[in-house]
């Protein structure tokens, strides 16, 4: 009887793929494509831990909340930092894409960093199940990204993907639908933002928030010298006087401030190439690598990596959507889903 009920629930559900990121969560619904992309942020009432807002609404509160409300990120470094808030966030997103219908129990594919532990995998699965999923499959993020950008992952040839997210950078070498070698480093877009916050605090005694740092990175950030060097006005609080303050900073300064996190990404790529079997190395000479994730959009990063590796470097057509698109492809191919489920179990 229970199995029949489960089967009927499946008929009324729409399977979904989730790119559960440190900075943003994207949801792909089968036959509809990506229907949701919102920040992985939860606004909580202090003391009660009651979730007030999720996603876009919560991000608008970052750094602007009254004393009794705090905006938190339940994901850190690509893994769950707070189980309850992650579950609340997932439940909200699952219900939102299914128009608030509580009876829907979809099958869910969740993309997870390749370096996470069995305990962390279990936490992701449990969160999704408690949030209303009927079945949960895990797929490693670099594999999802490679599938999402259209790399021929099932061929007996080397494919290299670099997925630069908010909390982690995933570098993987893929052949025959498997990851030959991968490196997951806890360096990503958030570290770039933090580097900018620390630089302005150190050099100018100016305090800025996460959102301002992200704006600076997107507007004038770069990994290599660009032709149109530019400046930007930044507003924050003077650490000494305690008053609002505006100053002008240059793109050269920002590039210098981003040097450490950018170097961490380049080093991870070099280590992966160093571990590459000779036959697959030969494939990469022509194929090169593909950059995905929000960090791939940092100006000049592709040129810097190409200069450091001597390989062709391509940026995905839509870097932010690569992982979510990959979960969508896997949803349509149930056999591939079982083959790629990150821990080899249903």
Question: Which segments are poorly predicted (pLDDT under 50) over 5 or more consecutive residues?
Answer: 1-12, 342-346
Strand order in space, largest sheet: 3-2-1-9-10
Cα-based radius of gyration, to the nearest Å: 21 Å
The proportion of strand residues reads 25-35%
Structural class: alpha+beta
Which architecture of the largest domain per CATH? 2-Layer Sandwich
Nearest-integer average pLDDT: 87
Distance between the termini: 21 Å
CATH top level of the largest domain? Alpha Beta
Number of beta-strand segments: 18
Which shape, going by the Cα principal axes?
flat
CATH homologous superfamily descriptor of the largest domain: ATPase, nucleotide binding domain
In DSSP terms (H or I, runs of 4 or more residues), the helix count works out at 13
Number of domains as seen in the coordinates: 3
CATH-defined fold name of the largest domain:
Nucleotidyltransferase, domain 5
Helix content: 25-40%
